[in-house]
Each structure stands twice: as C-alpha cells, then as structure tokens.
Amino acid sequence: MSRRMRALAVMLVCAALSACGSDDTESDPSAETVQGSERGVLATIDALQTASRRGAGGRICRDVFTRDLVRSIETSAKRSCSTEVRKRLFTRKASISVQRGIQVKGITASAIIREQNGNISTLHFLKQAGRWRIDRVTPQKAGHQ
Fold first, then answer.
1. Is the confidence at residue 24, as pLDDT, over 60?
2. What residue spans of 55-130 are helical by DSSP H?
3. Residue 82 lies in a domain
4. Minimal CB count within 10 Å: which of 41, 60, 94, 102?
C-alpha cells in the first residue's frame, strides 16, 4: 500500500473510530482468557480511547501511534499529527469493541474491531521499547469479517 493510501486509510478510520473501547471479556463469561501480550494490545486500545475522550492529540501521536504512522499522517494532512488527530478523532461517547481474538506474532499484533457505527477495521500493532503501538489501520467494508 502506498504511503499516501496508508495515510488516507488511517485518517478515514480515525474519523470513524472517534474513540476506542473495551474488550467484552469481563461481561462475557464464555470469552477466552486474555494473555499477557494481548493485554498490552488492549491497553493500547484503551489508551487511545482515554486520550481521545480527553482531546489529548499529542498523547495519541506520542504514546499510541508509531513514529511511521505519525509521519504518514503529517505528510498526508500537511499539518501536525496532534492537530489532525484532534480534528478527526475526538468524541466523548463513541466506542469500539474487539471483535476477534488478538493475533500476536513476535513484535507484531493485530485486532479486528467493530465501531459503534458498525464499521469493522483491523488495527495493526508494533511492539516498540516494550509497548504496543498502533502502526496502521486497515478499514474493512461493513458486514465483512
């Protein structure tokens, strides 16, 4: 995927994501147990939600996204990542849920999420300095899993 296409996909998903949410494992007794690496991925999704609800674009760009994703957003938007994220990502009430098991392979991971509006996306993560960060987002058409 070209750099521009990647940035566009991220911006579209950021606009749709509004805020991230919780994993439903606590409310669903039949849900699988969450492993250590998976907890780290969920913590990143939770950090995105918390920062989004607070309007903390700088925190998202600094602590949640990889540097490559930040550069891609800035190149595509022609402004700072925090400005773009504040403009497109923030809402206090929207949420997403993790739809499928988190896939962890070494220093990469992915999670399929469903947004409150029904859109489905795959978040791709990269482990950097011991922390999971969102490296890219792949939107899927609603209804396709």
1. no
2. 57-59, 67-77, 81-89
3. yes
4. 94
Q: Is residue 133 part of a domain?
A: yes
Domain count, the chain: 1
pLDDT in tens, 61-111: 999 999 999 999 999 999 999 999 888 776 666 576 887 779 999 999 999
Angle value at C-alpha 5, between 4 and 8, nearest 5 degrees: 85
Model confidence band, residue 126 (pLDDT cutoffs 50, 70, 90): very high
What CATH number has the domain bearing residue 75?
Answer: 3.10.450.50
Query: Is residue 77 assigned to a domain?
Result: yes
For residue 145, being part of any structural domain is answered with no
- pTM metric for this prediction: 0.73
Joined together, the tokens standing for residue 134 give 């969102």
Instruction: Return all residues near 21 (Cβ < 8 A) that are at least 6 apart.
Output: 45, 49, 95, 96, 97, 116
Whether the predicted pLDDT of 34 surpasses 60 = no
Residue in the block written with tokens 């911006």: 11
CB-based contacts of 94, cutoff 8 Å, min separation 6: 17, 18, 19, 115, 116, 117
Cα(125)–Cα(63) distance, rounded to whole angstroms?
13
